[in-house]
Amino acid sequence: MDFSLTDEQELLLESVREFCERYFTEDVIKEMYETQNMPDEIAEAYRDMGFGLMGIPEEYGGIPADKVTLGLMIEELYRASGCNHILYQNSLTMFDIVEFGSPEQIQKCMDAYMETGWPLCSLSISEPGAGSDNRNMSCVAKKQADGTYRLNGQKTWVTMGGRLPYTIVVAKDEDPSRDNASMSLWLVNKDRAGISTASLHKIGQQCIPFCEMYFDDVVLTEDDRMGAPGDGFMMLMKNFEVERAFLVAEQVGLAQAALEDAAAYASQRIAFNKPIANFQMIQEKLTEMEIRVQNTRNMLYKVLWELDNDIPVQLDSALLKRYGCTECFNVADMALAIYGGLGYTTEVRIGRLWADMRGNLFGGGTPEIMAYIAGRQVAKKYAQ
């Protein structure tokens, strides 16, 4: 098995490093966390470098790239920047629109991105009573006598929902009851009457704003629909497997940054007249950290390779998310322990990495839900 990178991939990673060195200085990152915002200059530069267009079909102005190459780019983007920002997540709703949207919706999406550097829309899927339990969604779109629809309900954990002009809403068709599994996707302009938002205040990931979004008799038309009626949830589930892998790529990059910081600090910090890297307990932590990063990275690129080769990944993507995000967070936890009390201050970035990476355990499905998905597949795999 060939683990070497192509010349093109090497050049891509070098470009990512140069981009991060220029735009993600510690002063800029601190300002982003204080303002809970990313400067437009960074989003525009990310667009101009072509990173945000990777994986989008060429016919829509994108840059063809396989999943392995995208994973490499994402990992290096978060390792080299050393912070949990919004840039890669911007591509996810663009992928959804390009795959499931109408020609008009796709054009609107690409025009908005090329003009501003920001995606057209956020994704509104989670609800206060339906995070992991998706069947419990109650947001509903009901058809009216005049052929329009009325959207009512509440969404939460909407990434960039307060800033972006549109949102993709997952809503039940006609009946909000738990028994109704028919859901559709709607691309909704937030200028519509009846839409309001409220910011969510978090303990980490401060430079990625999240919000709650409320829909009160919002008028929709068939032009707002994405994909076929009733297929909305299954369409998103298809892309969730890719999202989980890319989220782990982000987590691996952040874990690698935490490992590098901790190893460098252990070589410099003097205790009992010698660097603490000479002590067996510190060596044990560093060894465990390296093992967990390497194991997760190997699982990650196996799943991305499977996706590139159209191999089903329902089991492997759940295993990757369950193991990878948890173990990478544990790397950050051990890194903080190596720093000791200093790591619990804002003088160094490890505390920020720790809090940000803890949040990634929830995105794309919690560890418990991943175990539920994977456990059923494992039982089926080995059934006699």
TrEMBL record:
InterPro entries: Acyl-CoA_Oxase/DH_mid-dom, Acyl-CoA_Oxase/DH_mid-dom_sf, AcylCo_DH-like_C, AcylCo_DH/oxidase_C, AcylCoA_DH/ox_N, AcylCoA_DH/ox_N_sf, AcylCoA_DH/oxidase_NM_dom_sf. Residues 123-218 form the Acyl-CoA oxidase/dehydrogenase middle domain. One of its GO terms (molecular function) is acyl-CoA dehydrogenase activity. Residues 230-378 form the Acyl-CoA dehydrogenase/oxidase C-terminal domain. Residues 6-111 form the Acyl-CoA dehydrogenase/oxidase N-terminal domain. PANTHER family: ACYL-COA DEHYDROGENASE (PTHR43884), ISOVALERYL-COA DEHYDROGENASE, MITOCHONDRIAL-RELATED (PTHR43884:SF12). Belongs to the acyl-CoA dehydrogenase family. This is Acyl-CoA dehydrogenase.
